[in-house]
Automatic annotation (TrEMBL):
<dbReference type="InterPro" id="IPR036322">
    <property type="entry name" value="WD40_repeat_dom_sf"/>
</dbReference>
<keyword id="KW-0677">Repeat</keyword>
<feature type="repeat" description="WD">
    <location>
        <begin position="16"/>
        <end position="52"/>
    </location>
</feature>
<dbReference type="Pfam" id="PF00400">
    <property type="entry name" value="WD40"/>
</dbReference>
<feature type="repeat" description="WD">
    <location>
        <begin position="114"/>
        <end position="155"/>
    </location>
</feature>
<dbReference type="InterPro" id="IPR001680">
    <property type="entry name" value="WD40_rpt"/>
</dbReference>
<protein>
    <submittedName>
        <fullName>WD repeat-containing protein 70-like</fullName>
    </submittedName>
</protein>
<dbReference type="GO" id="GO:0005634">
    <property type="term" value="C:nucleus"/>
</dbReference>
<feature type="repeat" description="WD">
    <location>
        <begin position="77"/>
        <end position="97"/>
    </location>
</feature>
<dbReference type="InterPro" id="IPR015943">
    <property type="entry name" value="WD40/YVTN_repeat-like_dom_sf"/>
</dbReference>
<dbReference type="InterPro" id="IPR051858">
    <property type="entry name" value="WD_repeat_GAD-1"/>
</dbReference>
<dbReference type="InterPro" id="IPR020472">
    <property type="entry name" value="WD40_PAC1"/>
</dbReference>
<dbReference type="GO" id="GO:0035861">
    <property type="term" value="C:site of double-strand break"/>
</dbReference>
<keyword id="KW-0853">WD repeat</keyword>
<comment type="similarity">
    <text>Belongs to the WD repeat GAD-1 family.</text>
</comment>
């Protein structure tokens, strides 16, 4: 399947049928099998329906608290399909309620971003019970957040080198462990997998 490309000469991204810049991430909706989600350098997250290849289903414009466009580098759904999450280049994690058509942002760090400003958030994963959110950043951190309280992370692992934009993290099936890979440090020959208690 190929999605339609948007018109790059239109200023309002909401008026375009598809993305106008390179894609950064995508995933399938775990509950609605015909729906998937993509995020791109055009500062949008788009929801698509496989039965309609001529236009996106919905669009979410990612912005900073000051209203400026921010590029989403990672996106995902919660396991129950209710939440849409995106991590942006300003270090913010943004969450929208999928049950609301308007996609009003319900959580975003306002004082201090989740990750260092200017670093990519390479992965966002919700726990199987949808109570926790893990975020992996190119600022060499892995953070665990409570989905209901986004003021500060529940746990944070630092000094985990991350040189690649698709470095992933994953919860164990019982949500007790959080796993990620780390990039090679200078003069090292093997990477590592790090296990943390969640």
């Amino acid at each position: 399947m190929e999605c339609v490309k948007g018109d790059q000469y239109l200023v309002d991204q909401g008026s375009t049928k598809g993305h106008t810049a390179a894609l950064n991430n995508g995933c399938w909706n775990p509950k609605i099998k015909e729906e998937f989600l993509t995020c791109a350098n055009d500062s949008t997250v788009r929801l698509w329906d496989v039965t309609s290849k001529f236009k996106h289903k919905n669009i979410i414009k990612t912005k900073s608290t000051g209203g400026r466009k921010k590029v989403p580098t990672a996106c995902n759904y919660s396991n129950d399909g209710r939440w849409v999450v995106a991590g942006c280049t300003d270090g913010s994690i943004q969450i929208w309620d999928h049950n609301k058509y308007a996609f009003v942002n319900v959580a975003m760090q306002k004082k201090k971003p989740a990750h260092m400003n200017g670093s990519d958030i390479t992965c966002l994963k919700l726990s199987y019970d949808d109570r926790s959110l893990a975020s992996r950043g190119s600022d060499d951190t892995l953070k665990l957040w409570g989905i209901r309280n986004f003021k500060q992370p529940v746990a944070s692992n630092t000094s985990l080198p991350n040189a690649f934009s698709m470095t992933d993290c994953v919860f164990s099936p019982d949500d007790t462990l959080l796993v990620t890979g780390i990039s090679l440090r200078k003069n090292e020959k093997e990477g590592e997998i790090v296990f943390s208690r969640s």
